[in-house]
Amino acid sequence: MTGTTATTINTRLPLRQVWPDAFVERYRAAGYWRGETLPGFLRERAERFTHDVAVVAGETRYTYGQLWQEAERIGGGLLTLGLRPGDRVVVQLGNVAEFVTVVCGLFRAGLIPVYALPAHRITEIVHFVRRAEASAYVTAARYEGFDYRSLARELRAEVPTVQQVVIAGEAEEFTALAELAGDTSALPGDSDPQAVAFLQISGGSTGLSKLIPRTHDDYIYSFRASNEICAIDRDSVYLVALPAAHNFPMSSPGWLGALYAGARVVLSPGPGPDIAFPLLAREKVTCVGLVPPLALLWADAAAESRHDLSSLRVVQVGGAKLVPEAARRVAKGLDCRLQQVFGMAEGLVNYTRLSDPDDVVLNTQGRPISPDDEVLVVDDHGEPVPEGAAGHLLVRGPYTIRAYHNDDTANARSFTEDGYYRTGDMVQRLPGGYLVVQGRATDHINRAGEKISAEEIEDHLLAHPAVFDAAVVSIPDDYLGERSCAFVIARGERPRAVALKAWVREQGLAAFKVPDQIEFVDAFGTTAVGKISRRELRAQLREHFLDRQNQDEERI
Ligand code: AMP
Ligand code: DBH
């Protein structure tokens, strides 16, 4: 016997996000990375702005002082349950006060949040838990009619390594968030600013979502600089209308930017004007981030609204392309400054500036945050294209990751040897560094800002006994920007489209991934060479479909 106690050895993969030394020095010297940490700044704000309101959710209000107290209670409580700093915790909460207190509590305890969206279901949660090697799951009893305790039960059955389930609300057999209590003296000292602070989720262009490790230094830089660009200061009131776990309302500048500035964060339980407008008027909101279809809805609703929206200074629109005509309607309808935001959870964020001329604001998706965002626009062979020509967008910089967590295949595909992230977006770069998004090189569907991997849905369709083959493509949609359409070759008798949609949902997936449309075909027109790539196939199917649709429209 060698005497090794295998059971006590921690075999979890370490969380790493490493820039080469020369870059670290450069980013520090330039003042981007200042050695601040997320719990560090929250503590400092709690001391400085103790009695100012930090978070508003429904009738609940937390001052900066109370937010920090809650963070200490929750963080201490989680450690008392047996979690250890560095453990990963999947958080699935909607736009409720607990989302902010839990995330701040995790930061305080050196625990690593993994951000799931409320729309995610068992398949996605199991994937996040396994990939992150998470030891705990924090969720709500119910949100938007769904009971997350049943999901927690399924999760525990499927992944027994999830030691703890903590529930906001009626906890049943689980631990109640409200009852967490612990020895705050067990809380760790401040973290290493270059350590990974949390795992963000990528929309995933191929297969399942990837986990994005972001460090304190890099993330804080991105929202501190965003505050400057978006004029967020202590007097600002930032409305979280999109899911708070999404990178856009979290960091561009988002609720974290707002907390950094000592501003007020208002969580809207829903994104529509019916819920958001009364809140906006009550709290005198100054800034909000929206996806294009919502922005159009808001612009229309504003004309007839009895609510006073005059506090609104900046409406940010991002997550999917805002075409110029839509941009015009939004700017006019909401009577405030429009700001286009083109960002990604992997890092790079572009903004039109508040002082930019209308032409730039309406027609471009902005320019990068940082002078040290190195943007390349290249052709299919990796050669730079001339200014103004369309090409693949590659980027590296002080807040763009160099690797995903625990995914060698994705890393080999998504990063160049010299550390550039291949965004998968096709863009044009204009003078001044402004980018115009042209489309994508990868096959995901951008459904109103929710990214869906074609491959992931095809896999689930193929598991259906009546499906011989399936290809999922994006189809332009007036409202969503893009919708998903699955082309299906049946095996024998065709199943009903609704039955196939129900099948996808029953695989335990977020509802937004269920194909919007299903088209049965007898064969995929794999012409000429016979064997074509999935990508070419999807492109062909899409083109045929759009041609046919156009012909039908001409006939009408
Ligand atoms: P994710 O990697 O899941 O965070 O999604 C980021 C992707 O969303 C980008 O790579 C773009 O494809 C898309 N995206 C975000 N903002 C915009 C925008 N303003 N215009 C067009 N596409 C956008
Ligand atoms: O779509 C996105 O992921 C996104 C959009 C705008 C984002 O991550 C961001 C700003 O930070």
Structure description:
α16 (497-506) links the parallel β26 and β27 (517-520). 34% of the residues lie in helices and 25% in strands. It is of the alpha/beta class and 556 residues long. The protein has a nine-stranded mixed beta sheet with strand order 2-1-13-12-14-15-16-17-18, sandwiched between helices. The chain has two domains: 21-433, 3-Layer(aba) Sandwich (Rossmann fold), CATH 3.40.50.12780; 447-555, GMP Synthetase, Chain A, domain 3. The protein has 17 helices and 27 strands. α3 (64-80) packs across α4 (97-109), α7 crosses α9 and α11 (292-304) runs parallel beside α12. The longest helix is centred in the C-terminal third of the chain and has 22 residues, at 534-555. The N and C termini lie far apart (82 Å). The structure holds adenosine monophosphate (AMP) and 2,3-dihydroxy-benzoic acid (DBH).
